[in-house]
Amino acid sequence: MNKTDIRSYSLDQLENIVSSFGEPKFKAKQIYQWIWQKGAMNFEQMTNLSKKLREELNNAFTFNTLIRTHQQQSIDGTVKTGWQLQDNSIIESVLIPVPKDNRYTLCVSSQVGCSLACAFCATGQLKKVRNLTDYEIFEQFLKVNSMSKEIYGHQLTNIVYMGMGEPLLNYNNVVKSIDKITNPLAFGYSTKRITLSTSGITKGIVRLADDDIKVNIALSLHAADDDKRSKIMPINETNKLRDVIDALKYMYDKNKPRIGFEYIMFKDFNDSIEDANKLMKLTKFFPVKVNIIEYNYVEGVNLKKASDEKVNKFAKYLVDHGVMTTVRRSRGKDIDAACGQLANKIENK
Ligand code: SAH
Ligand code: SF4
Hints:
There is one protein chain. The strands form three sheets. Strands 3-4-5-6-9-10-11-12-13-14 form a ten-stranded mixed β-sheet, with helices on one face. It contains ten helices and 14 strands. It has helices at residues 11-20, 26-36, 51-60, 134-152, 171-182, 202-210, 226-232, 241-255, 273-281, 308-320; strands spanning 4-5, 61-62, 67-73, 79-84, 90-98, 103-107, 111-112, 130-131, 158-161, 194-198, 216-220, 259-265, 289-294, 324-328. The two termini are 28 Å apart. Helix 4 (134-152) crosses helix 5. By secondary structure, it is an alpha/beta fold. Strand 4 (79-84) and strand 5 form a beta hairpin. The protein folds into two domains: 4-62, DNA polymerase, domain 1, CATH 1.10.150; 67-335, TIM Barrel, CATH 3.20.20.70. The longest helix has 19 residues, at 134-152. The structure holds S-adenosyl-L-homocysteine and iron/sulfur cluster. S-adenosyl-L-homocysteine binds next to strand 10 and strand 12. The site of S-adenosyl-L-homocysteine has 17 residues, from strand 10 and strand 12.
């Protein structure tokens, strides 16, 4: 029989478990701290538990740790790592170093594949989908944090939920993972260092506000009117732009997160000044920064990247009209680690 991963239990449940072994309840808290505050990944490490308890735990439970399947380092320093999960699914995490700014960012996956099938995204082409557990997300953070220290001598400074999957369709586990990463007794990351990227799940955005989750938000906008957006992002048919913007405004009014609009520029699709005008209208409801992203090639996709000239013109137009705008060049393209490229080479393995 497969043993259950000890990390799937809440503190209350751990108390029941230690009681069933005839141990005092406070032992549960120690186990909890080993897991979530010290990042333990086996029972041996839990040296303040008796040897007997450690053995009993080891006989009954396990840690299904992530198994590294591949790792590639880009010429720009970006490191992509593939992990095999207990059910043999594969996910990827990306470490993006910017030493000159002292910034070491983890791009974390939240699902295996993605059900939303955006026209331009490799992850959306993967069929198999399941939600990652909170500990599968947390462990990507632990492992890449160690990696960052090893390779660059610096721990992670930022975390972006921009890997595989739509984080707001895995709301509970994503929020639990944020809670674990920001736990003041452990890594104590400020939610200000965490950015959640979403294709625009209205209900999820409202829920983040209601639950007081104060992370920054990146909206994958990519088109500034419903017709165009629905053509490349099917999720837009049920989550119309107006509703998504209203949800973001609700979140902004409540917790003042930093909000960004991600905008991949596609040739002859969303790269005109008329498109820029429409985009501008969406920036009036709360402070927002527009991030123009270069389209990264994905096999089988019918869209092309906009010319540099168009990108520059579009960006200048926004800036001239008072919209904070940056143009982001992709990182890790040579190793398929750039936005939207995750997993496009995995399926055939
Ligand atoms: N599902 C979430 C988060 C993961 S996608 C979301 O869609 O926001 C992370 C980012 O990569 C998103 O902004 C997404 O739109 C972008 N992306 C997807 N495919 C891309 C591609 N081929 N080139 C550039 N960016 C891409
Ligand atoms: Fe899913 Fe985001 Fe890719 Fe769309 S862009 S398919 S929402 S991972």
